[in-house]
């Protein structure tokens, strides 16, 4: 991720503490003066939630102000509120409420990450790159005294990051591993086409191997299980991760597939009223299968 531009710090400005506090008061600012935080990892999607936000803004405006910092090259850089800015643009607003904060690059990155991680639904790719950005910023700030060996650090940066979001330092590291995935595979993780744990194992494959893995996945028409991904990682470490080898691994029938039959919800919905619950659909399918089985038995007895 690209590093944010250097901000104008409070040490470089004259004025009293009261002046500095005044700069953090809520004020209206033209949308044209605002631009996204450079390299921020959070996606702004035109989804159903965005539509709801736009409608809300049309009715009552932007309630929660955006947090921004001055950009020495002009305008203001958004630390928190990228989705609100986009919704305000779609709603046709000319200004939005903001609070201006003076922060250096590292403090701005940490604030930006912590603020955006408060959202309810965070994609794996967003967590991956935001944790990586925060980790690098914390290292620049000197919160870790030993940058060569984690085991001697009094408190690891990954441990501090994990405590803030309620997860272990190892889970934080595993999320950061996802930043080694090529964009096509990382998108599949966000779309839940590839599960988190297999994706972590795939991150150890070289970029060229990951591209060929996409071919193997398409060939097998299946997503990798954890054991398959671990075997692909081992093949890569041993120098034998060829397209043919990956196709062979991916074409194997997974153990859980031997015990389960899965029918996608969108396939079933074509045959049932919208009011039917999953339980009603299941009961109806069982009744039809029992009827079909009795019919087959009668045919055999004739």
Automatic annotation (TrEMBL):
Keyword Transferase attached: no
A Gene Ontology molecular function term of the record: DNA binding
Keyword flag Aminoacyl-tRNA synthetase: no
Domain ParB-like N-terminal: start-end pairs: 27-117
GO biological process, one term: chromosome segregation
Chain intervals with Polar residues compositional bias: 1-15
Keywords, comma-separated and alphabetical: Chromosome partition
Stretches for region Disordered: 1-28
GO CC annotation, single: chromosome
Signal peptide start and end residues: none
Coiled coil regions, renumbered to chain: none
Family designation: Belongs to the ParB family.
NCBIfam families assigned to the protein according to its UniProt record, in alphabetical order: parB_part (TIGR00180)
Protein name: ParB-like protein
The organism of origin for this protein: Faecalibacterium duncaniae (strain DSM 17677 / JCM 31915 / A2-165) (Faecalibacterium prausnitzii)
């Amino acid at each position: 991720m690209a590093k944010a531009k250097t901000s104008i710090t409070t040490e470089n400005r004259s004025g009293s503490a009261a002046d500095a506090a005044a700069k953090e008061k809520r004020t209206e600012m033209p949308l044209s003066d605002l631009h996204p935080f450079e390299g921020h990892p959070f996606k702004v999607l035109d989804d159903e939630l965005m539509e709801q936000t736009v409608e809300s803004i049309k009715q009552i405006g932007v309630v929660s102000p955006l947090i921004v910092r001055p950009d020495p090259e002009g305008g203001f850089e958004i630390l928190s509120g990228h989705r609100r800015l986009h919704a305000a643009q779609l709603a046709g607003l000319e200004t939005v409420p903001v609070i201006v904060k003076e922060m250096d690059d590292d403090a701005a990155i940490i604030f930006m990450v912590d603020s955006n991680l408060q959202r309810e639904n965070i994609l794996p790719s967003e967590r991956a790159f935001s944790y990586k950005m925060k980790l690098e910023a914390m290292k620049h700030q000197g919160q870790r005294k030993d940058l060569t060996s984690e085991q001697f650090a009094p408190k690891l940066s990954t441990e501090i990051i994990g405590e803030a979001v309620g997860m272990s330092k190892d889970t934080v590291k595993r999320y950061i591993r996802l930043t080694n995935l090529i964009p096509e595979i990382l998108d599949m993780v966000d779309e839940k086409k590839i599960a988190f744990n297999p994706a972590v194992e795939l991150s150890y494959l070289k970029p060229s191997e990951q591209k060929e893995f996409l071919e193997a996945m398409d060939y097998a028409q299946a997503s990798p299980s954890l054991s398959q991904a671990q075997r692909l990682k081992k093949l890569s470490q041993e120098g034998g991760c060829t397209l043919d080898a990956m196709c062979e691994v991916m074409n194997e029938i997974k153990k859980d597939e031997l015990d389960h039959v899965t029918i996608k919800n969108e396939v079933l919905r074509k045959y049932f009223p919208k009011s039917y619950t999953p339980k009603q659909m299941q009961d109806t399918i069982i009744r039809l299968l029992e009827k079909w089985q009795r019919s087959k038995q009668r045919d055999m007895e004739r």
